Amino acid sequence: MSKQLDVLVIGGGPGGYVAAIRAAQLGFTTACCESNPYADPKGEPRLGGTCLNVGCIPSKALLHTSHLFHEAGHAFAEQGITVGTPDIDVPKMIARKAKIVDQLTSGIKGLFKKNKVTLLSGHGSFVARTEAGWQIKVGEEVVEAKQVIVATGSKPRHLPTVPVDNKIVCDNVGALDIHAVPKKLAIIGAGVIGLEMGSVWRRLGAEVTILEVLPDFLAVADVDVAKEAQKVFTKQGLAISLGVKIGEITATDAGVSIAYTDKAGAEQKLEADRVIVSIGRIPNTDGLNAEAVGLKLDGRGMVEVDGHCRTNLPGVWAIGDVVRGPMLAHKAMEEAVMVAEIMAGQAGHCNFDTIPYVIYTSPEIAWVGKTEQQLKAEGVAYKAGRIPFLANGRALGMGEPTGFVKMLADTKTDRILGVHIIGANASELISEAVVAMEFGGASEDLARICHAHPTLSEAVHEAALACDKRALHF
Ligand code: FAD
Ligand code: NAI
Predict the structure, then answer these.
(1) For this structure, is 179 an active site residue?
(2) Distance from the CA of 179 to the center of ligand 2, in angstroms?
């Protein structure tokens, strides 16, 4: 007889492993199947998905090391510290990153044990509907589950004309595993990966050129933030060409040649040692056998779900990168908890309007809620408060005067509609705005809250005061 489960989660990324843990905590007999090709030393698939293995965590480890390297070479002297010319041992940097990945992925196995989640090794695919639920093939075994959560994530979108070998032509996997600083690095796509990975290798000394199809830089961010970011990144040495059309790409063992048409319509050629293709990601539904059971996908191949992550099939849910919404680990985890709690008869909650976005460049970029251009397009009457970090004592002490906090609030109700930060520690500062917005807070609420001095958070406080034209320090 096949294994009988209350819940089977397909995919062990941040969506899947969190869903499995929460479902087990709520008393369901739960298993999670994972077919990740990056096996651990025991030969089991690694948990953690894109995020832990080839995404959030390894990229932030490299961003941190390269930031320290850059600080040692450029910022120390200004503060009177002499260290000589810093050198970078790239294999050591990569080994440190790999160790962090190992530690965290094996930590999730520990969490599975603690919460009594069974790990099933193998690719999961739908077989049939049964009276009690669903039959799923995992590897060679067929299991039965009353409820199924599809959390199969996403994979990088590639250019149709050039195969990725992750040596010369890299996606995110190869970009995180380069063992020597390339002299010239080309990046296609000035999105989040392009900017983060471009920053890593630029700081370590590569000549980085980023080719972006859209005419505007970082169009998803608030227009003022995007403008400031473009200025700062260009000054850091990232050569960013907007409005390009990529032509033929020829890759050899020695490097890559990229033909493209620039914004003005002129034919150009870029020669580089490597190229990173970071032009977005596509949902992972390969081999899920969705069609056999009638699981509905949308036009982009994502599993179609409602606001509570219910699919068109009873007892089948889908969460994370494989469904609509931003492809972010914390969004996947929120949906995971929501689904497990709804399955247990609880309310379940995921507020898609307060999901924070962060780009871990230097300075960092973070936002929540609406951008100014969105509010204009929607015809919402708003007021804005903007405070530069140049007016913040802590930022000056840290040698981080770049950037600003911008708060947007409803003219009539004062409710906070969006907060946009470019500056040091923006990734942490944004949490205050998320909390305020989650509680339906007004700019006056933040303005009347005491903020420790001297902290970067005072810039958030001042931006709230500035919404009412009563900033005290600017
Ligand atoms: P995934 O993490 O993709 O996990 C899906 C898992 O399912 C995989 O392990 C896969 O092997 C498995 N799987 C697929 N199909 C099957 C099947 N049929 N059977 C069994 N297993 C299957 N997000 C952030 O929030 N912050 C960041 O800083 C950040 N940085 C990133 C940096 C990079 C370079 C990249 C590429 C992404 C980054 N992301 C970041 C995005 C984040 O990684 C994803 O949003 C997140 O991993 C999505 O989680 P998920 O569980 O939906 O899918
Ligand atoms: P992205 O969507 O952020 O950026 C892709 C960029 O490539 C866009 O600017 C797009 O206009 C451009 N592009 C598309 N086709 C192109 C073409 N043919 N030629 C040139 N440019 C082209 O996607 P990216 O950077 O690949 O990252 C994938 C996803 O992973 C992100 O959307 C995000 O959800 C997640 N991620 C999140 C991070 C974070 O939260 N800090 C870090 C890295 C990734």
Answers:
(1) no
(2) 23
Q: Which domains does the chain have, with CATH numbers?
A: 3-156+282-350 (3.50.50.60), 169-279 (3.50.50.60), 355-466 (3.30.390.30)
Query: In the prediction, which pLDDT does 3 show?
Result: 83
| 172 C-beta closer than 6 A to ligand 1 | yes
Q: Is 192 in the pocket of ligand 2 (CB under 6 A)?
A: yes
Contact of 421 with 412, CB cutoff 8 Å: no
- Measured in Å, residue 218 CA sits from the centre of ligand 2 at 10
Q: Is 375 in the pocket of ligand 2 (CB under 6 A)?
A: no
- By most ligand atoms within 8 Å of CB, the mutation choice from 17, 51, 155, 338 for ligand 1 is 51
For the whole model, what pTM was predicted? Answer: 0.98
Instruction: Answer yes or no: is the C-beta of 152 below 6 A from any ligand 1 atom.
Output: yes
Ligand nearest to the CA of 47: 1
Question: Does the beta carbon of 17 lie inside 6 Å of ligand 2?
Answer: no
140, HSE (Cβ side, Cα atoms, 13 Å): 0
* Stretches in the chain below the pLDDT threshold 70: 1
Amino acid sitting at position 98: A
CA-based nearest residue to 159, from 182, 187, 181: 187
pLDDT for 2: 74
- Compute the chain's Rg from CA coordinates: 24
Q: List the Cα angle 155/121/337 in 5-degree steps.
A: 65
Query: Which pLDDT value is given to residue 397?
Result: 97
Q: How many other CB atoms are there within 10 angstroms of residue 238's CB atom?
A: 22
Tell me, what's the pLDDT at 1? 56
Report the pLDDT value the prediction gives residue 276, as an integer from 0 to 100.
Answer: 98
Mutation to probe ligand 2, out of 51, 64, 193, 422 (largest number of atoms < 8 A from CB): 193
Query: Which tokens hold the place of 346?
Result: 């609880």
For residue 30, what are the CA distances in angstroms to 81, 302, 341, 349, 419? 55, 24, 14, 21, 39
- Which whole-number Å values give the CA distances from 405 to 255, 341, 419, in the listed order? 41, 36, 7
Residues in the chain: 474
Contacts by residues 91-97 (CB-CB < 8 Å, ≥ 24 positions apart): 91/179, 93/62, 93/65, 93/66, 94/62, 94/177, 94/178, 94/179, 96/61, 96/65, 97/58, 97/61, 97/62, 97/65, 97/176
pLDDT tens by residue, 48-72:
999 999 999 999 999 999 999 999 9
Predicted confidence at residue 42, as pLDDT, reads 78
